[in-house]
Amino acid sequence: MENWRKWIAETQMTAMLALAVAVSFGDPYAVSFGLWAIIIGGGFIGVVHLNPTVTLCNYAKKKYLRTLTNENRVEFKGNLIFQIVGALCGGLIGTIIATGNHFHFKIGNDSTIAEAIVAEAIFTCQLNLVIMISQEIEFPLIGSLAVSMTVLVGALTVGPISGGCFNPTVCLSLNSVKAIYYDDINYMHDIWIYVIGPLIGSAMAIVLGCVYLGEKNFKATIYERNSMSSGIPMLSDYKSKDFPE
């Protein structure tokens, strides 16, 4: 039952993310602040991924720590399935609202395929690093804001180059729905870029996450707050209750 509650949330919130991208024409501010609200809204039911690269990073993290259970495997497989379902629902609703004139992902006119893949990989990597670190700190409001700001910076920075997707299921949804609506396969032409780039980025995030946090910090999921020198919580301002000094 617990998995089903999470999967319903995963479906509904991935749909909202895809809808926000579709109808706002990929506006960085609408998408990033919408994502912040979506993450906060899903916090009561557990961690929502909304993105297959996030699910893969969480799977690898548990695998690395040898804490992966059969229940986790079932949950993660379900997440991947319901992310696709949710994104397709969001894309369909966006098509209805915008009468087919919704946003779809494509590389910039002056950009090359290599540039687009590198752009997607770099910011997908950074996005997943922020998520992996924020999961270890008991500040969900700040963690979710950091995630949404990463998306905002990525969209503003490389949006003109790659479209600023960082999420394969959202691209798959919006581009495929538009291809069906207009009966034009050309909308699917660049879709593989938004699979390869984010997958490379998630692999980079897994490696860098292990290096930056280390096994000790990775395993520490409960933190207590020490004295802070500034108002911005840093990882160094916390210490693990699981690992005595």
Oligomer: single chain
- Broad structural category: mainly alpha
Q: What's the SSE pattern? A: HHHHHHHHEE
Helical amount among residues, as a percent range?
55-70%
What's the alpha carbon Rg, rounded to whole Å?
18 Å
Mean pLDDT, all residues? 85
Number of domains: 1
How much strand?
under 5%
Q: What would CATH call the homologous superfamily?
A: Glycerol uptake facilitator protein
Uncertain spans, ≥5 residues at pLDDT below 50?
Answer: 220-245
Q: Number of DSSP strands? A: 2
Number of helices: 8
Q: Per CATH, what is the topology?
A: Glycerol uptake facilitator protein
**Lateral arrangement of strands in the main beta sheet:** 1-2
Identify the CATH architecture.
Up-down Bundle
Organism: Blepharisma stoltei
Pfam families: MIP
Main location: membrane
Transmembrane segments: 36-59, 80-100, 112-132, 139-158, 191-213
Structural notes for this entry:
The chain is an all-alpha fold and 245 residues long. It has a single domain (2-240), classed as Glycerol uptake facilitator protein (Up-down Bundle). Helices cover 68% and strands 2% of the residues. The chain has 8 helices and 2 strands; from the N terminus they run H-H-H-H-H-H-H-H-E-E. Strands 1-2 form a two-stranded antiparallel ribbon. Helix 1 packs parallel to helix 4 (70-98) and helix 3 (52-65) runs antiparallel to helix 4. It starts with a helix and ends in a 5-residue tail after the last strand. Residues 220-245 have low confidence and may be disordered. Its main location: membrane. One of its GO terms (biological process) is one-carbon compound transport. It holds the Pfam family MIP. The chain crosses the membrane at residues 36-59, 80-100, 112-132, 139-158, 191-213. This is Aquaporin.
